[in-house]
Structures are given as C-alpha cells and as structure tokens.
Amino acid sequence: MEEKIASLRDVLKEADRVAALTGAGISAESGVPTFRGDEGLWRNYRATDLATPQAFARDPELVWEFYNWRRELISKVTYNPAHRALVELERIVPGFTLITQNVDGLHLLAGSRNLIEIHGNLWKVRCTKCREITLDRSPDMGTSPECKLCGGLLRPHVVWFGESLDPDILQQAIATSKACQVMLVIGTSSVVQPAASLALEAKSGGAVVAEINLESTPHSPFMDFTLHGKAGEIVPKLVENWA
Ligand code: OAD
User: Fold this and answer.
1) For 135-146, what is the mean pLDDT?
2) Among candidates 185, 233, 240, which has minimal Cα distance to 80?
3) Contacts 24+ apart (CB under 8 A), 33-41
4) Ligand 1 atom 38, closest CA
5) What is the CA(191)–ligand 1 centre distance, in A?
6) Which residue in the list 119, 157, 219, 228 is annotated as catalytic?
7) Which of 229, 162, 167, 203 shows the shortest CA–CA distance to 21?
C-alpha cells in the first residue's frame, strides 16, 4: 500500500492538470451517512426512495422532514483530513479541479475553491414556482417552507434521482475530466450516472485514474491504481512528503 501511494504521488507531482471526483465515502468519516450502506436508512425509508421528484410531489412534508434531519445532522459535523488534503492539493497543483457528487458542503467548508458541485448543495433551496435559488443554513426549514419572493413551495436545491444535471455544470465536469492528466476517484460507488462516467471520460482522454475506496467498485478493473482503505487515511498521505 505505501509503495502504491508513493508511486501515485510521483504521478501527481508530474501533472499540472489534476481532477478529483468525490462521493459520499469521503464524508463518511465526518459522520455523514453514505447512500447505499445500511446507514442510508431513515425511519425505514431508503434515502434513494425519498430523494426523488415523485416522493416530493406525493408527500413534500415527508421529504422536508428527511432533509431537515440531514440538515441537522450535517450542521453538527465538519470536514475531515481527506477534505483538507484536497485543499492542500489545490494549493500545490497548478490546475486542480474538484468535482463532487456530495451536497453536504464539506469541501467548501474545508476551503476547496475550484469546486464543481454536480448534485447541488443541501444548504441551498429553490422555489418550485419562481425557481429563485437562495442560501439558507437553518437546520430546520419546517415542513412547508415558502419562497420569500412569491410564496411558492421551496425544495432542496439538489439533483434528485431521475432528474437531469444542470447542463452547464455537467459540461464543465466533462471538460475537466477529458482534460485532466490524473483523476482521483474517491469514496464513490460509481453506480450513479452521469457522475460515474466522468472517470471513463478521464481514462479515454489518456489520464491516469486512481480509485480510493473501502472496497472494489464496478470501475476498479480499469483503474490504474486501486487503493483500498479509508479516504481520511489515504488521501492525506498523497500530499505528505511532497517536496
Ligand atoms: P454511495 O453511498 O453510493 O457510495 C459510497 C462509497 O464510498 C462506497 O463505494 C463505499 O465503499 C465508499 N466508502 C465508504 N466509506 C468510505 C471511506 N471512509 N473511505 C473511502 N471510501 C468509503 O455514494 P455516492 O457514490 O456518492 O445522488 O452516490 C452517488 C450519488 O447517489 C449521490 O451523489 C447521491 C446518491 O444517491 C444524488 O443525491 C443525486
């Protein structure tokens, strides 16, 4: 493992365009539940059943209760050494871009700036009527929050299952993936599209791709490096002994 980390660090040192793609696993050590493990359950509902436009149309109050629970939980946690190490990588690598599927805002809190949040941000809300987007960090939004401008029902400004990504944001993520020389794929099960395909874009564009995950994923076979273990332990090692 230590040797693999050292050789990946050598590859990173040679690169001036590096991308990282992160998923729920990078925030797991901060105490944020991932989506597909058993801890993804809330009151016996799977997160993947509530984070849908159909669930919101059927029962917006239930979906808001779920998001209030997530807001409350996430408001009490903070970034971990893996998030910090990516901030450090942004500082050292000339062209570093972070693409995240996470909506928890922990990358921003840690200090990442060149960041593409492809699934939105839990702390933003969007009016279902006038579509105005606002920032609201209240841990409890109530179960029928209203838009201050038009009185319409607010919803979380996140991408739900079955919804399309913002086309400009997706384009930016694809362009970054195609252009990078190295891509670190950290803590994602690599099953949700189009996010999962970004690693394939990177690989077909000639990048060295490296996966950091507790376990193998459907993408492990085509990775140049697979580092199995906790992101909070492995990612910081990549930026240690850099000089
Ligand atoms: P998942 O919950 O599907 O996957 C989390 C991954 O992180 C798994 O592969 C775990 O093995 C790995 N993992 C867990 N703890 C880890 C640790 N400490 N260090 C390293 N790896 C660890 O989450 P995502 O892949 O992010 O979409 O899921 C993708 C999307 O599906 C999410 O953005 C969300 C979700 O439903 C939307 O909300 C649209």
Assistant:
1) 96
2) 233
3) 33/73, 34/187, 35/189, 36/189, 36/191
4) 160
5) 9
6) 119
7) 203
| Ligand 1, pocket-test mutation among 42, 52, 101, most atoms within 8 A of CB | 101
- DSSP structural state of residue 174: H
Confirm if 62 and 69 have CB atoms less than 8 A apart.
no
Using alpha carbons, select from 218, 213, 203, 226 the residue that is nearest to residue 23.
213
Tens digits of residue pLDDT in 97-115: 999 999 999 999 999 999 9
CB atoms within 10 A of CB 75: 15
Contact of 178 with 205, CB cutoff 8 Å: yes
Dig out the tokens for 142 from the structure.
């109530």
pTM: 0.93
What pLDDT score was predicted for residue 195? 84
Longest dimension (CA), the chain: 58
Domains of the chain plus CATH, in order, are 2-32+79-119+165-238 (3.40.50.1220), 33-76+120-158 (3.30.1600.10)
Give the amino acid at 122. L
| Ligand 1 site residues, Cβ closer than 6 angstroms | 23-25, 28-29, 34-36, 48, 51, 101, 119, 158-161, 187-189, 192, 213-215, 217, 230-231
Distance 149 CA to ligand 1 centre (A): 35
**Mean pLDDT of the 49-63 span:** 95
Is 119 among the residues known to form the active site? Answer: yes
Mean pLDDT (whole number) for 171-189: 97
